[in-house]
Structure formats: C-alpha cells, structure tokens
Amino acid sequence: MKSTKITFKNAAGLELSARIDLPADRKPQHFALFAHCFTCSKDLSVVRNISRALTSNGFGVLRIDFTGLGESDGSFSETTFNSNIADLQAAMNYLTAEHSAPELIIGHSLGGAAAIVAGAADEHIKAVVTIGAPANIEHIKNMFTDHVPKILAEGSAEVSIGGRPFTIAKSFLEDLEQRDLVAIVADMRKAILIAHSPQDTIVSIDNAAELYQAAHHPKSFLSLDGADHLMTNSSDSIYVGNMIATWVQRYLPMEVEEDLKSEMPVVAHIANEGYTTQIRAGDHPVTADEPESVGGNNYGPSPYELLSAALGACTAMTMKMYAERKKWDLQHAYVHLRHGKVHATDCAECEEKGSGKIDRFERLIELHGDLDDTQRKRLMEIADKCPVHRTLHGSVQVVTWLKKVEES
C-alpha cells in the first residue's frame, strides 16, 4: 500500500495526525475510516495490518490519532468519548473534501463503540465493523476501577494503562453515561460485522453477544478464536483484515474492469487516468505506469522496468533450463537489473561510434547451489544466450498499422 502522513483540524481547532493508505496498484473505489482502541494510536500493528488488507482489495483507508494520543495535538486528560466522536466526524469531513466520503467505518475496542455511534449517524456509512468492542461504554471503567472514587472526588487522577500513565478526568467518566450503545445498534439499519475473541479477557465475548442480539440484519459475527484483546499476534490482525475485506464487498461491491480482449497475444489499454496502462499478456493481467515524478500514478512498473523484467526473467529461466538438462545443482538464481541511457563514447564495451546515447542494461547474477567454477562460468555464458537477450542485440522490426474504429 501507499501510505501518506497527513494532518487536519478537528472541531476544536486542534491538529489531528493521520495516515491515508491507498492501494499500490489502482485508485480506491471505496474509503474506510479506522478508530483505534482506548489509549492506542493509528500506528498500532493491528491497525496497519487491517488497513493493508483493505488496500490490497481496492479500499482507501484513513487511520487517525484521537486528540491527545499518538502524534495528534491536545491533552488526553481533556478528551471525552464525545470528543472521540467529533474527531471521527472531522476525519469524515476531511475524506469527503479531499477524496471521497467514507462508506465503511471500523473500530477496535472503545474505538468500536465510537465507530457505532459515528457510523450510525453518518449518511454515507453503509457498513460498520467492531473488533473487541464493549456493549456498554462504561465498561472502560474496569481498566481503572480502583481510581474511580478519586477521579470523582478530585476531578482527575493519573492511572496506568498498558504500563503508560494517563490522566483521566471526571468529565470523561460522566460522558460515558450518555450513550446507550445497544439502543443505537438496535436503531441502526446498516450492515454490521461484530468480531470478537472468545478468549478476550479485557472485553468479554458477552459484549459481542449483546450487540449482535440487538442488531438487525444484515449482521455477521466473526470469531477471533485464540486472539487476545489487542491482537498482539500479527496473524490474528491479518486474518481479521482479510475477512473484513471479503465481507464488506457484499455491501460495497467493487467494479471489475472488463477483461481486455485481442486477437493478438498481448494487448495494452490506456484511458484518461494519467499514464496508468492495463495490459493483458496471454492469460495474465499486468498494470504499467510511470512514476509520480513524471505525472504517473506509480501503480505499476514503467515500460523500461517491464523490459528489464523480461530480460531478467528470460535470463533466469534459460539458466535454469540448462542446469536441469545438465543435472547441475542450481538451487536459486537471482538476476538484478538496471537500465539507463549512456553516451556511446562513454561505453568502452560498445562498438557503436558517435556521440549519441545508447541503451545500457546492467545485469548482476547470483547463483546458489553446489556449483563449481566451471559450471558457474558456463551458466554466465548461457545467460547471454537467452532469447530476450538475443532479441535486444538483434535486428528488430516493429510493424504498425491503424485499426479502424467506429465511435458510437
């Protein structure tokens, strides 16, 4: 995925830090907003892994740091659950103005509660996902139960959460009593996926049952069997990310580009979206592009990178075929390539004369296996005999003609 750090202001004028994650090979068709867990941040591995799974499936994802957390401005002691909701609304406004309105909202733990409230109220959100979310927001008090009397009596207290000190204010506790999550879910008419671990010792799975019972169809439950509350095992967050990406496409379908067709083995198609070019080579789709520095989207390799890749692949295959025929122990072959333009007069190994520029491919070959020096030398000679190498050195003729097209 392509990840870019951005900032925007919330309703209180504070600057919130966020990252916008986009697919590496295409423009996103839908956008999602991620709300992290209590006292966490946008850079927690569970957030990154889920975002990566979504971008791999064509989604754009905005993950933010709530006020006073991560890299966002403000003091955590002055935040409330309502301020978290306001931060999510500011994030929605940013996405709508700069990209496209989010249609999916995901929340982890208390962020799941915030996702329910913000998602239910926003007209653009079509699907809501909670991960380890409480059914009662006041459940969060369990993380610092012993400090509640002091907070109520003195107005605030410093508590330790996950080994880090946080100041919890009385206003935070009072704010928790104002939202009835179960009632909000019962009134919501949007697709919802409730993901929870049966082994969650922070927020018991009974919370998921209560939310699921209150929700209307279409509703789904995903068991995160074996996972802890924070999903510290990366395989758990990767799993839930892939499941979310699959589930949500029933409600946010992806437009599938029509397959390229041609009577020839290879066809390339470019439209009006920069230099992004769709290619079908045999039965295989490929995306080509130019770097952003020259006006492209960088969704795929450039034409010269594809040409270098063809030389590298052909070199590796040719050496492998020869080694197999000779029954030599070639375990792995790596072919590293670089292409550039050099002046003919600067190329001592070239016979061309004149001051013009020529194409130069630099090829570094790694051979792994039980091979002696004679075998390695012979494989290097074979590398120069690969068909693409010969094509580049041979006389090439490109015949072009124009196909008549009747515009409708």
List the SSEs and their pairings:
Elements: E1 2-9, E2 15-22, E3 30-35, H1 45-56, E4 59-64, H2 81-98, E5 104-108, H3 110-121, E6 127-131, H4 148-154, E7 156-161, E8 164-169, H5 170-176, H6 181-187, E9 191-196, H7 206-214, E10 219-223, H8 234-248, E11 266-270, E12 277-281, E13 284-288, H9 303-326, E14 332-343, E15 357-368, H10 373-383, H11 387-393
Parallel strand pairs: 3-4, 3-5, 5-6, 6-9, 9-10
Antiparallel strand pairs: 1-2, 2-4, 7-8, 11-12, 12-13, 14-15
Helix pairs in contact: 1-8, 2-3, 3-6, 9-10
CATH fold label of the largest domain: Rossmann fold
Count of DSSP H/I helices = 11
Report mean pLDDT, rounded to a whole number.
91
Q: What is the H/E order? A: EEEHEHEHEHEEHHEHEHEEEHEEHH
Low-confidence stretches: none
CATH class category label of the largest domain: Alpha Beta
Number of domains: 2
Amount of beta strand: 15-25%
* Spatial gap, N to C terminus: 38 Å
Q: Provide the spatial order of strands within the biggest beta sheet.
A: 1-2-4-3-5-6-9-10
**Number of extended strands:** 15
- Give the name of the CATH superfamily of the largest domain: Alpha/Beta hydrolase fold, catalytic domain
Outline of the structure:
This protein is of the alpha/beta class and 408 residues long. It has helices spanning 45-56, 81-98, 110-121, 148-154, 170-176, 181-187, 206-214, 234-248, 303-326, 373-383, 387-393, and strands spanning 2-9, 15-22, 30-35, 59-64, 104-108, 127-131, 156-161, 164-169, 191-196, 219-223, 266-270, 277-281, 284-288, 332-343, 357-368.
